[in-house]
Amino acid sequence: MSKNTLSIASLGTPRIGPRRELKFALEKYWSGQLSAKDLSETATALRCANWARQHALGITTIPSNDFSFYDHVLDTAVMVGAIPKAYGWSGGPVNLETYFAMARGSVGGASHPICVHGHSAPAHGVPALEMTKWFDTNYHYMVPELEPDQDFTLASTKPVDEFREALAIGYKTRPVILGPISFLKLSKCTDGTTECINLIDKILSVYLDLMEQLQAAGAEWLQIDEPALVLDLSEIERAAYKRVYSKIAKTVPSLKIMLTSYFGSLGNNLDIATSLPVAGLHIDLVRAPEQLTAVRQKLQQNQILSLGVIDGRNIWRADLQKLHDWLLPVVQERGLTGIELAPSCSLLHTPIDLELETELDSDLKSWLAFSVQKMAELSTLGQAFEKGVETVAGALQAATKALQARATSDKVHNKTVQNRVQATGSELTSRNSPFKTRSFLQQEATGLPLFPTTTIGSFPQTAEVRKARTAFNKGELSPTAYNAFLKTETKRAIRWQEEIGIDVLVHGEFERNDMVQYFGEQLAGYAFTKHAWVQSYGSRCVRPPIIYGDVARPHAMTVEWTAYAQSLTSRPVKGMLTGPVTMLQWSFVRDDMPRADVCKQIALALRDEVTDLETAGIRLIQVDEPALREGLPLRRLEWSAYLEWAVACFKLATSGVTDAVQIHTHMCYCEFNDIISSIAAMDADVISIETSRSKMELLDAFVSYSYPNDIGPGVYDIHSPRIPKTAEISNLLEKANGLLKATQIWVNPDCGLKTRSWDEVRPALIAMVAAAKNLRQHA
Ligand code: GLN
Ligand code: ZN
């Protein structure tokens, strides 16, 4: 950063490559088709391209070490030598094999327990580290596992190596590392009780080693990410910040630290963050613009204030003129060298380049900005401050014009939807009668046995199914032929379920590409991209739909398939929908309206689908909400407001039916203890949950709450190819039966079966039905 220019930073860029080059290289490497050397060359090329792209776009503070083969938290664990014994590492450099064993399990290791994007491997060998969501994003990180007396050592100098690599080709970067306190906050201790933060002094000495090496290698700046600063922290953690950052300042006095917070407001950690002896502080001004005033007051004049003003979590074009006017007093007060312009957080969570989207509606496209466009926005804003706003007048006006068009476009605004939302009162968010009454009527209507058996919705998406869909999408298979194919699959699934004696059938979801996309494609207000991939975990990327306008349902979405399935059998077929909160949570959501209101629009569209299903004679309807818990705000204080609207939206979607229609919901991979009252408030007649891996422990929340409605505790793990034995399922069912009333219990797998093969599904469900029948006889 030279004297009279301001710093324009990206904080981190997507790693995967514009055409998902890293994904394909990794997958080839894992399957033995690519050598380690070739993989490493692909990685080098991607890093160089990232640096060059940022430079060309006007980023002046370019990061390094934002690249990762799999995950930056895993990289950090490896860097500090936190490699669990099971992976057989005995010191020295950590090779790729060990690294990927931690990420994916060793040869034949267990799969990641992720439901929606399920993938799997044989269940032998050392399992992968656990994986969980990175704050409130849809990115997943590998959870470091630490011993209570964990020792740390500098096992990898990746940050130094990549700094040198960039330097060698002419970029003096600002390396980025995950800070020690956030790292420990994201880790788990193997004994389950020790707080990882107790290891702070031990881990700090390794971080200090690294920083000394960075300093020696010529690094002038270091970006330390401490997103934990936006969380509720314990006193020990808060105290650690002061100690750690003072020690860093003393040990590497000439290394300037840019400490970054993101994903929210510093809140009650603001005094701590602004009092640390660091050269700069980054704050998220998209999620928490209100913190600007307080931080401005507290931060020393000689510290750089990094202004996170371009949304790193969403894809909307910024209002540059408005940003300019808002920030001008800050720039005048602190001077050009006293500020930095940046995205709210690393650009990791945005797709790479909007220009690749050649088929997107041109109006919508003009309202969007992906990571490339966001960097250009930062550069424009920087130029406005450096050279005068008139020098970028054209760019500012273009942005203003696009935003005005968006604000008034009838592609976005639908009066009918808005009026309907307005007129929606709380009377629409509850069923006609209490559960007891409904349950009686439903039992009369369905005549189901005790411990009814069912599945969660999807049956195997076989190679054949996917091939047919691809051919149909390419126009190689006619709609008639595709439809006939899907009908055959559905019919076969119905016949087979009847044959093995499942009580409540599903149509199998063969026609669905993805549980959100399938609905989004049929709803107005949703758009889909071709190349806008963002990393979900490792080589896995997702293309979240874009909710850009008022959501409406032009036509019924599932009635035809469900009714067709029901026409084939006298047993009840369960309708299958994705819930409003999940539809919201797994999309890029418009930023011109509160999320709660967008959710309400989706809920109303689904409400119509639910009532249409009833009209078509469907007696049970499942509305999946696997993402309900994910939506919880980072701060505890904000939970109840979120839960209130999320639950209300679920109820709005499901309360339009008569008492005799049974509403099911499904949630996988979810801890229920602290949200059980909201789960109960959803008032679904039946909830199916994932419980097999916890050996029914996740039921405890329901038991201690005396949860009144019905529950289907998952009786076998669908993430593993292991085929469960009847006896195992019986054991789990006995356990559930000891905890709940017999009349409350449903029998089902943990989740949908789309990622499994029929060879796995057939024997597993046969065993499940046998276990239910046994229990009926003995209970
Ligand atoms: N009905 C969906 C399925 O079976 C549910 C998926 C999920 O819970 N993520 O595939
Ligand atoms: Zn599930």
UniProtKB/TrEMBL annotation:
Transferase is among the record's keywords: yes
Chain sites annotated for binding L-homocysteine: I456, G457, S458, E509, D624
EC number: 2.1.1.14
Residues involved in 5-methyltetrahydropteroyltri-L-glutamate binding: R20, E21, L22, K23, K133, R540, C541, W586, E630
Residues that, per the record, bind L-methionine: I456, G457, S458, E509, D624
Keywords, alphabetical: Amino-acid biosynthesis, Metal-binding, Methionine biosynthesis, Methyltransferase, Repeat, Transferase, Zinc
UniProt xrefs under Gene3D superfamilies: 3.20.20.210
Highest taxon above the source species: Bacteria
Keyword hit for Repeat: yes
Catalytic reactions on record: 5-methyltetrahydropteroyltri-L-glutamate + L-homocysteine = tetrahydropteroyltri-L-glutamate + L-methionine
Cofactor(s) needed by this chain: Zn(2+)
Details of cofactor binding: Binds 1 zinc ion per subunit.
One Gene Ontology term from the biological process aspect of the record: methylation
Pfam families the UniProt entry points to: Meth_synt_1 (PF08267), Meth_synt_2 (PF01717)
Domain spans labelled Cobalamin-independent methionine synthase MetE C-terminal/archaeal: 451-774
Record-level Gene Ontology MF annotations: 5-methyltetrahydropteroyltriglutamate-homocysteine S-methyltransferase activity
Residues of the active site: H719 (proton donor)
Its job: Catalyzes the transfer of a methyl group from 5-methyltetrahydrofolate to homocysteine resulting in methionine formation.
Matches recorded under PANTHER family: 5-METHYLTETRAHYDROPTEROYLTRIGLUTAMATE--HOMOCYSTEINE METHYLTRANSFERASE
Family indicated by similarity: Belongs to the vitamin-B12 independent methionine synthase family.
Protein name (database record): 5-methyltetrahydropteroyltriglutamate--homocysteine methyltransferase
